[in-house]
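Schema walkthrough. Field components (list of strings):
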Amino acid sequence: MKTAFSFDTVNTRYQEPNRNRVESKYYWEELIRLTSAGGFEAIELPFDLGFMGARCAFPFSQVALDVKYGGAEGFKSLLAESGITKIAGLQGTAFPAGDADRYVGGFRMLGSRMLEHAKRLGCDYAVISASPEVASLGGLPEKKEELLEKLAGALNELAEEAGDVKLCVRGEYWGILRGAELPKFMEKVDKRVYINVDLAHAAIAGEDPVRFIKACGGRIGSVTLTDTSFHDEDACWKGPNPQFPKSCPTQVFRDLGEGEIDLRAVLGALKEQGYDGWLTVSNRQTKDVSRGILRARYTLKKEA
Amino acid sequence: MANIHYSHMSHWKGVPYKEIPNFRDFYYEDKTNHAYYQSWDMILKYHAGCGYEGLEVAPWDLMDILKLFRDLTEFREFAGERGVQISGMFHGMGPGHIRENIPNCVAQCKAAAEKVVVMGGKHLNVCPGIDWAQGGPLTEEGITNTIDCLNEMGRVTEDLGVKLGIHNEFFCIMNLPNHRRIIESTDPKTVHYCLDTAQVSIMGEDLCTFYEDYHDRICTFHLKDTADPGLPDEKRYAPSNPEIQDDGHRWFWEPGLGVLDFEGLFKLLRKYEFKGWATIETDGTPDLLASMAYAIYYFRDKLGTIYR
Amino acid sequence: MGENIKYSYMAHWKGIPYKEIPNFRDFYYEDKTNHAYYQSWDMILDYYVATGFDGIELMPNVREMSSLFGTPKNFGDYVRSKGVQISGMFSGMGPGHIRENIPNCVANFKNAVDLIVELGGRHINLCPGIDWAQGGPLTEEGITNTIDCLNEMGRYSEDHGIQLGIHNEFFCIMNLPNHRRIIESTNPKTVHYCLDTAQVSIMGEDLCTFYEDYHDRICTFHLKDTADPGLPDEKRYALSNPEIQDDGHRWFWEPGLGVLDFEGLFKLLRKYEFKGWATIETDGTPDLLASMAYVSYYLHHVLDKIYS
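Field assembly_structure (string):
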């Protein structure tokens, strides 16, 4: 098993002091060096379709890489200069829509473009969310079976495009495939599509991560190491902003090692399943990117 | 009674919580100052604490706002309870320089103005087109279409009791070669101007001259400073959007930290007896609260000796 | 400023390395974070004005004042030129519970009073002894010595137009068993009381009852909140100084974020027609400016409605 560090660690969306820095290229150039200093030789990138063009230097879309970093090759050279030799994978979520055909159409397009981008960057996997938060899907969750059937169809089509890239489906705790629902759903999907195991999402959905890994069996295509101490007692997953539970604000996703998940047990379970792929650290709600990198490295040293 | 009512441009980006009822516990999770910037409750209180009467809403935040509040009326009431009014909203005209887009641009403008009405605001400050990098320069036809689009938008906003203020930007498709011509070709009764002091200076206008020339069209302001007045064409028209610079160079600064003549401007405000909202804007700052505190001190307390 | 209460903010900024930063933009660019915004007295005092504070209460950092301003008087003049008054200074009595130390404690106190006179302040808020962990409990002799020391100090300060306010702290050697006795044994004409609302509550007094009982002695305040009123003896008397907790637990919160009854207190201020300075203190906050802005809101939009 090899480790990567996800650049979803950077808050591009919400308010915090010094947030302005992340819009400029110099910030990402330094982040690459800091990630390498944290002992990581591989990264994961969030993927977006680039509708905002290259206004900001987030290296998440093809257009941003082309305009700001000299394309895929230019970006890979920049990484290599700092000792990061691999972009392990990508992750993306389709735009919400209240209509099944529109949503699945968007899902299909995202998947296709992400696979294309993953091949360009030499990635081993691409993680696609089964859905965004249910509260943003209008009345769709009530027609869940119909939606899941269309989703399975879209995934089967994407399986034909995947090639050497492992397309992996993630079931967020706030989505339409929570916890154990995901491996069950995947029985209907082409075996060339895999499952992404995200520890915190499984745990918050009420599925012990070790049990979840066993349920996924040999279908695990990528593993995202996230941590949490959040217990969704108020069913925040059903409402808007589920990762910011309004009844009791808290940092849902903790830096690796700072939550309750038993990483040692998880790694043991993965070994038992014969998993030999990427373990990608995601400190997606960190309050301090640099500290998060070091915390992750320390935790991996201790538990892995 | 002050003549100038200060509003603050909301560059807070996503604010994840409406309120944080368990503030101490939330603070303890991390023990940094992050907890202080995570709720509209606290952020609005900072506005009131700094003496801002208003907030100008960013349209890109509406989706996040509506996840937290039942509707924009609730948002307005929530802000009001904390001593803050909504002065207006920013808006982008979009590609109205292409004739077939005009109906859609006008429809979007109307929808935005309706939201301003719901929020109790007065101003819709409109960037008059797409980025220069995406379609400049404006052709003669493009100029005509821009004028027509603005005039139509002005009619619909005026009917709703909202003032449309052209808010030009140094990298906009409407730029120095046609800026004044377009302003002067629009209907002065319905198409007003929101003077962004930095944007217009970077574009190449002299701030005080511009205000002197168009004071009767200027209904409001985005007050901010710059150290880059008169930026050359090739930089304003750069194909990679120049707004965010790779090396973190800031176009915009808090007043007094750049080079613009705000004292001169305030003497003109006094001369022409400006009355109304003025939005203080500090995009690009690393610390919105420090900037908003510093900026209102500068305008209200320091320049307030010239005119308030 | 209200009619009756002038608000000061306690300077917990620690060392401020610059008087002014004339090359602000370049200084900012060295790091491109918000650090630059908190490095000069110039900007920090602007934040005071912006957030509506009338005054600043100082920590006795003569060395810094002198190195940046030449003399304390120059520092005081500078602060006033920015629109901020100096309400007073905090200080510590030292080990005056031991008789042979009294002359030295009084001598240091006199220096502090002289400094406040030079700075143009009004209050010296005095912690009445060393930490309990360093020498508690007070013996009978210790109590007598403390009273005598305070009385001697009070004479000097009153003669120089400065009000000495006993500012007790929950971990101080003067503590709940002898707090009231010592207050009542000192000269009411020259030894006053600075009511630190959190410290006294943590120590075990009920805030409103204490104010009701001693309103005629209380000349000023440190207004701050707590979530730990009535802390048990063993915690207050802990041998490892309890002020800063190993796990980052905060004793003090911004007014309104803890559990104290400020509205009840302000009703009493109204009843007894308090007039004068009240200092807001937010030691332990991760963000002094956020705390200032928040507190300003709370004072002017909540508590002022009861009494200002």
